[in-house]
Specification:
Elements lengths: L2 H19 L6 H8 L12 E2 L8 E6 L11 E10 L2 E4 L1 H4 L7 E5 L10 E10 L13 E5 L25 E6 L14 E8 L1 H7 L8 E4 L17 E4 L2 E8 L10 E5 H22 L1
Antiparallel strand pairs: 1-9, 2-3, 2-5, 3-4, 4-7, 5-6, 6-7, 8-9, 8-11, 9-10, 10-13, 11-12, 12-13
Helix pairs in contact: 1-2
Length: 287
């Protein structure tokens, strides 16, 4: 291979890697297809089974094919967080190019495929006005539910929003039914993992020119092994028991050099409250 051809090939690899990285979480298989399989080591996302009663704000967002009316085809696709009995917070990329008729929310269930919990169809999807699917900017959205969730404060409970910006080193808790490794199998039961917050200054070094104030990062930097993964998207990241992040994107899952990236709930708290107030006012008028 000539030097010029080699340079062009290296540039192609770099551009391909960046494009895949910022389209959302990518699997190790996809990374290996770019790199030729060299230097890519999968790590099990190191969580544990947890009861929904410890995280009663967690929901499973189920999706079916756009033109199917068969409810048996609904399957877990993303996570989310109960904000009120009629509003769920999730990620914008979970709802991009979706219609409400495809979606339903299941709350209060431990199992990923269970319908034992409370089930509600989706009445309305509220995307952030400046959501950018190419780079996961403003990756936050609200779901308005058709029927109220039966809040019992045991297995179904609304989360509170963080009142402060998370700081580097704060311990964050992530939950979901996402894959146990990048591109791997899905668990049947809800999982929990704890990782420290990574400052945006450090995170920007790992994701050059991509991290904004609307994002926060978390992970075992240069250690790896614990992280959110595919289909945890939209789910909660808690700091001090309050909702501080929404699972957004990352390069692979639990890789030492790449922390996970989350929508910054503290940054979006005014947007969330204003949209929720508009929804509540509309629901009152309808009733």
């Amino acid at each position: 291979m000539t030097i010029c051809a080699l340079c062009n090939y290296i540039a192609f690899l770099a551009l391909s890697f960046i494009a895949l990285t910022y389209a959302g979480r990518i699997s190790l298989d996809e990374l290996e297809s770019i790199s030729g399989g060299e230097g890519i080591n999968g790590r099990i996302v190191g969580g544990k089974v947890v009861d929904i009663r410890k995280h009663p704000h967690q929901i499973s967002l189920r999706q079916r094919p756009k033109y199917s009316e068969d409810q048996s085809t609904y399957a877990h696709n993303c996570g989310g967080t109960i904000y009120t009995d009629r509003i769920v917070i999730t990620a914008g990329h979970c709802l991009y190019d979706r219609v409400k008729e495809q979606l339903m929310v299941v709350a209060g269930a431990n199992e990923r495929s269970s319908v034992d919990g409370a089930i509600s169809p989706v009445q309305e999807i509220i995307m952030h006005e400046e959501y950018n699917d190419d780079y996961s900017y403003n990756d936050i959205a609200l779901l308005v539910l058709t029927t109220p969730l039966p809040i019992n404060n045991v297995s179904i409970k609304a989360a509170t929003l963080t009142e402060v910006q998370p700081q580097h080193g704060d311990i964050a808790t992530i939950t979901g039914w996402g894959t146990l490794s990048s591109g791997g199998s899905l668990p049947d039961l809800l999982q929990e993992v704890q990782v420290p917050i990574v400052s945006n200054e450090i995170c920007s070094q790992r994701y050059p020119r991509r991290i904004t104030d609307a994002m926060i990062c978390a992970g075992l930097l240069d250690v790896g092994g614990k992280d959110a993964c595919q289909m945890d998207s939209g789910g909660p990241l808690l700091v001090h028991g309050q909702l501080a992040g929404v699972v957004s994107f990352g390069s692979g899952c639990a890789l030492p050099q790449y922390p996970g990236v989350y929508a910054n709930v503290w940054y979006f708290s005014t947007w969330i409250r204003e949209k929720a107030a508009q929804v509540e006012a509309k629901l009152l008028r309808e009733n």
